[in-house]
Amino acid sequence: MKKIAIMGAGGFGTALAFVLSRNSQSVSLWDQDEALIAKWRKQNFSDRYPYLKKHKFNKNIKLISGSVNADDHDYVIVSTSTSGITGALNSLNTNGKTPIVLIQKGMLDGLISPHDLAKKIFPKETIMQFTGAGFAKDLVGRSPAGMIVLHETKDTSTASDFASVFKGSNIWPTLCSDLFGVNIHNSLRTIASFEQGFVYGYFEHKFRKKPPVSTIAITFSAINQETKLIARNLGATKEIHDIESKVHRILEADLMLCQSDSSRNFALGHFVGKGYCLDEAKKKVTEGVAECLNNISSIFAAISEKVIKDTIEDSFPYLLAAKNLTEKGEIESQMKRILSHHENYIA
Fold it and tell me: What pLDDT score was predicted for residue 190?
């Protein structure tokens, strides 16, 4: 039995706590809100999101707050938003031995990954990431899901040991050392989800019913293709594009996972496509944060430095539309540009 601290008791962190505890691991589930932890101890379940209420905390889950000592654990998982990493790490007393595992997706401006951010704070610690194709609601409900343990090459053995704590559970992990490439794809996945939601919402609004399947098929396919093209331009390695790679399979699954309102990013784009202004759309998205907004800004800035500016409209029409939409661009003009791209591309 391994002792694992999970810092961040949101949907995903809590779901991981259940997956690991059911797999005979000892879990300390942490939240900075002491009153909330006290409430959960008393009622024996999390009411942060509706889907968590039916899952009672078992004997292998301990609810904690305050500071966390790495000496007391074999692994420390940081399960906050990207913006919350620093705050969580400030509550962690490190020891230079216990690996720190991050679950955040997305990159900050300058393509700074969660791994980069944590390494800046704790340069001597072993930092890994745990990412993949799984919604918290599905994981806590025991649905199988593929995940990736991202690590530096020197930490392959440590990453393999961490993956082993999930053996026999409903999480199927694989290893990958392309930290930059997978983080790029994670960011792009949130953007693609927003773009697909926008297209779906636009045609739903236009036809006053569920959009035509053929239209959705060609536009969603184009978005996925554009995502891979951007990743290649930004320097993702060949491994994660190899169709025989386990990592490729999980990244493809992640793209497929987020093609519905179950994804917060898709839901945000969906509302925008239906005509809601961005601020109204954000208010309608519940159960977490849509990470795509920061990612759109950082990825657009990065790709603008890599390619000739005049080619962005032709090569990356969906990314340009997403950028304009998040800056309150007019919907019809963005869709007109996208449709024009399709007509010219197919012709």
Answer: 93
| pLDDT attached to residue 346 | 64
Is the domain spanning 181-346 CATH 1.10.1040.10? The answer is: yes
pTM of the model: 0.89
- The H or E element that residue 109 is part of is none
Q: What tokens does 64 get?
A: 């904690």
* 93 SS3 class: strand
User: Range(s) for CATH 1.10.1040.10 in the chain?
Assistant: 181-346
Question: Which residues, in sequence order, are bridge partners of residue 132?
Answer: 147
Cα(34)–Cα(289) distance, integer angstroms: 22
- For every residue of 67-110, DSSP letters joined together read -EEGGG-SEEEE-S-GGGHHHHHTTEE--SSS-EEE-----BTT
Could you report the per-residue pLDDT of 89-106, keeping only the tens digit for each?
999 999 999 999 999 988
What angle (nearest 5°) sits at the alpha carbon of residue 129, between those of residues 65 and 160? Answer: 110
The span from the CA of 183 to the CA of 166, in Å, is 22
Whether the pLDDT of residue 255 is over 70: the answer is yes
Domain 3-177 has CATH 3.40.50.720: yes
As a whole number of angstroms, the distance between CA 189 and CA 322 comes to 13
CB under 8 A, 24+ apart: contacts of 337-340 = 337/313, 338/199, 338/219
CA distances in angstroms from 164 to 26, 102, 174, 249, listed in the order given: 14, 17, 10, 20
Rounded CA separation 264/129 (Å): 21
Q: Give the residue range(s) of CATH 3.40.50.720 domains in the chain.
A: 3-177
Give the pLDDT confidence score for residue 287 in this predicted structure: 67
The pLDDT, as a whole number, for residue 237 is 74
